[in-house]
Amino acid sequence: MRRVFALGLPTAWGAVAISYKFGCPLAQQEGLGARIVTSAVFLAVGTGLIFHVRRALLRELTQVRKVAGAAQSVLLRPLPPRLDGLGVAAAQLSADRGAAIGGDLYEAIATEQGVRVVMGDVRGHGLPAIGTAAALLGSFREAAHDEPELGGVLRRLERAFARHLRERSRAEHPSTGREPDTPPAEEFVTVLLLEIRRDGELRALNCGHPWPYLLSAHGVAPLAHTEPLPPLGPFPLPPDLDPVRCGHLLPGESLVLYTDGAEDARDTHGRFFSLPTALTVATRDRQASPQTILRTVFTALLRHTGGRPTDDIAVLVLRNDRRQRHTSGARGTARPAPLDPQPTTNR
To answer: How much is the pTM?
Structure first.
């Protein structure tokens, strides 16, 4: 019925205009008054058609946005505010105007090994990047629970990425009839895997992604300075995947994971956005929650870019809210005392 109505109303308007033009004696007259009336009739018909088309387009746009919102809730499902004793907040901003999702991906899952986190950035944005992000997130959500070592999770992501590219290439070029030998060289994704154990120990595997920022009593600093591995795609992973040990995330400290769109954002004068400065402002209150830090960063980002970022941006904030009786030693080598039992949040 909606389609019949959508087609019937313009047809009725057109029939009225034609009937008036050829069936009304007034329309056949050449006087000024008759011409004014004829012009008014056709103006009314044209205005009605324009409003009808506009209403149909707005209805279609509303439906598309609902579908995009549903897709985002599946692809980047909302993270819980607390996960195994950690405060969590995350958000993503797409570079495509009006789009709800892009090529950035993130996830945090409580496992037997601790909280495992992934942050990734697919080359480009749009529908192809969204498909790649979905393939990687699906693989991570399974591997995070199945693989005892972080290196096994990364290898699962590599295989999922290569398989997705082969399937996409086969779908885009069905006439060749051959299985693609290797993924396209220009396709890649940067990935950061992070494991936060119950004692706060941090382990990471980084494939071409920016290192997170650590927010502590000493200020804002990169979590590590180790040279990352190449991004997934162009080169195979090395035989040995030993996670980088990054010390401990002490109670009250926070980690900020992000995609490079945050630091590559420019203002109208071409100046880059200073993420460390924004984080310093956000943490002037030592008790700032992850939600407060996230809101401060995105407000500063949108102000810096004039509300129009040129690349997808994702930010994930993790804060250690676990209680600790006492610690000894320097930061990063401390051996925390046993923690109060905390239930694991299963997602």
So the answer is: 0.73
